[in-house]
Amino acid sequence: MGIAKILIVDDRLENLLTLESLLDAPDIDPIRATSGIEALGLTLDHDFALVLLDVQMPGMDGYEVAELMRGNKKTKHIPIIFITADFRGEAQVFKGYESGAVDYLFKPLDEMVFQGKVGVFIELFRQREALHQKTRELDRKLVELEEVQQQLEETNERLRLLSTTDGLTGLLNKRQFDAIFDEEWMRSVRNKSPLSLLTLDIDDFKSYNDTYGHMAGDDCLKKVAFTLSEVARRYADKVARVGGEEFTVLLPDTEVEGAQYVAEMLREAIFELAIPHVGSRIADCVTTSIGVSTLIPGREDAKRALLEAADVGLYRAKEKGRNRWCYEATDSLRPSCTAALFFPERGDE
After folding, report:
1. Taking Cα atoms as reference points, which of 273, 271, 164 lies closest to residue 223?
2. Positive/negative CA dihedral, 266, 272, 274, 278
3. Is 245 among the residues known to form the active site?
4. Largest CB tally within 10 Å, which of 10, 174, 182, 292?
5. Spatial separation of the C-alpha atoms in residues 10 and 124, rounded to whole Å
6. According to the model, what pLDDT value does residue 91 have?
7. What is the rounded radius of gyration, in angstroms, for the C-alpha atoms of the chain?
8. Catalytic, out of 245, 308, 345, 349
9. CATH code, 4-133
10. CB atoms within 10 A of CB 243
11. What's the distance, Cα to Cα, between the start and end of the chain in Å?
12. Superfamily assignment of 174-338 in CATH?
């Protein structure tokens, strides 16, 4: 337990010495003041357990000192015991209490009474200090808990990202794409709005890995993924890596012409990356084949039709020479295929 500081205030040295002798204990530190002004200054510099204050002093008496202490936020809670030889009656005692004193001691001091009253306030000080210590420890624990909570939230966010994104490219993974596809399907059903799907495959990617190595292959995938995200950049557009070198792009609220426009922009953007590919059968750089399909969702089985149509479009694009996109209608009535066509740009919705 720490040392309890007690401020003793009296203008007469013999009285101060008497008080010091009564407070002679290893866990008490009496500090002198010979005037009210000096006492007020010391209360701002120390944390006192108690003030023993003489009532009658020249200049500023004990009542004035007590009133000023009670008016200060730092000192208003320090208990004050008046020490006086004045027995002029209850009026003076009441004045002391009104000034902020908690008790009175009369000279000559009775040692047992003095020790008993001072001991009460020393014990209250000890309890208050212990409470403050517990509060500080609790605050420290709360800070630690907040830090742990933040770490848990960051860990959960990392786990969420790991469970929803592809570790290499940062795109959505297949699991998350399937969940989003279901959500967008239901939204399109409610709004009777078109939903388009693009399936992409990097041409001759196995040959690329065989020629340049898997590290270069990973770099190629990341460049292609970034380019896909830059082209399909509407908030509603969703890009995912669903296989080794296979990607898919979901385009909500997008008609056939808009989907074809995006497909051509993707094909062209990847071609313009000019990533060398000496093992390609169709160009000296990396290219992609794209399958495109569009429908307005209705029956649940139409969802499978949209996926299958995009896959058929991708197959046809590869069959016809790669580095192109092919549109496959879900009713198989409007197939089309091209290596480079230009369409009116979609609005940025």
Report:
1. 273
2. positive
3. yes
4. 292
5. 24
6. 61
7. 42
8. 245
9. 3.40.50.2300
10. 11
11. 69
12. Reverse transcriptase/Diguanylate cyclase domain (3.30.70.270)
